[in-house]
Amino acid sequence: MKLLALDTSSEGCSAALLVDGDVFEKFEIAPRGHTRLLMPMIRALLAEQGLKPMHLDALAFACGPGSFTGVRIATGVVQGLAWGLDLSVVAVSSLETVALGAIETLPVAEGEGIAVAFDARMSELYWGCFCNRSGLPELLGEERVCPPSRVALESGVTRWNGAGQGWGFRNEMPGDVSARMDRVDETLIPRASWVARLAAVKFNLGLAVPAEQAQPVYVRDEVSWKKLPGRE
């Protein structure tokens, strides 16, 4: 299987190519460089593996939640490629990608929980609780956005780990949530290599969709936009 995965949902910009189980990735921290970097990353990955776009079997992207502008960039690129190449797309939660990263890097033991938090701006967090099931994150409950003071852990898990830059607001979280964390890694952000790993599993489960159904996930029902001078 040959799958191309993209992520621009945070300050990181990355593309990854999964080729018969091996993953190759280009990654760079570039908060305002996603549009400039993404296509060159894709071209470089394909060239290094001696592949052309028509050799791909599927596409994947981190669909959010995350940066509104960033999520739209990956969505637009993956839709354009999918239409042009007549390929299906696997959408992967940005929170889920970081949960997989925590499983691999902390590491997180089988059956332990991962509470993932992203800074959602406007004094809120994107929040999702996952459990390590055979090396893959399983969502517990629903992903949501809320103030740090209203985050909560799901039942059924006794040991918890925190992941994501939203844990920088740990002092504003309920004491019973913060106190239950065995470890917290605030440095983890979404990466296309984790998107690719999860997308391959979802693709084999029949969860790929046509290009027009590859949509961003914002979590928020309503968003107030404020345009600041000199800001995009």
Automatic annotation (TrEMBL):
Protein name (database record): tRNA threonylcarbamoyladenosine biosynthesis protein TsaB
Intracellular or extracellular location(s): Cytoplasm
Organism: Marinobacter antarcticus
GO biological process entries: tRNA threonylcarbamoyladenosine modification
Pfam family, one: TsaD
Keyword Glycoprotein: no
Signal peptide: none
Family annotation (CDD domains): ASKHA_NBD_TsaB
Entry GO CC: cytoplasm
Main location: cytoplasm
Family label: Belongs to the KAE1 / TsaD family. TsaB subfamily.
Gene: tsaB
Domain of life: Bacteria
Keyword line: Cytoplasm, tRNA processing
Location of the Gcp-like domain: 28-128
